[in-house]
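Colleagues,

For the teaching module next term, I've prepared a clean inverse folding example: a structure given as tokens, and then the sequence designed for it. I'd like students to try predicting residues themselves before seeing the answer, so please don't circulate the second half yet.
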């Protein structure tokens, strides 16, 4: 599961980099993926939308067992 999550995040990184942002995989607990938003993504007013409508939906679609994505500091 971790390998599939990291592979998917690698595909997402270039899109975040366009806005000087990045994402770091922290871990997974049950079906919840923990990530850290970096660069301009950290603290961005749209980061919740990016996290839920973008990153979470893509991970749920591509990685069996992913139920949610949570940002940690």
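(Answer key — instructors only)
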């Amino acid at each position: 599961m971790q390998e599939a999550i990291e592979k998917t995040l690698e595909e997402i990184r270039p899109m975040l980099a366009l806005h000087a942002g990045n994402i770091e995989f922290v871990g997974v607990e049950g079906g919840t993926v923990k990530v850290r938003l970096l660069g301009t993504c950290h603290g961005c007013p749209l980061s919740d939308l990016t996290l839920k409508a973008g990153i979470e939906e893509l991970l749920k679609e591509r990685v069996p067992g992913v139920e949610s994505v949570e940002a940690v500091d």
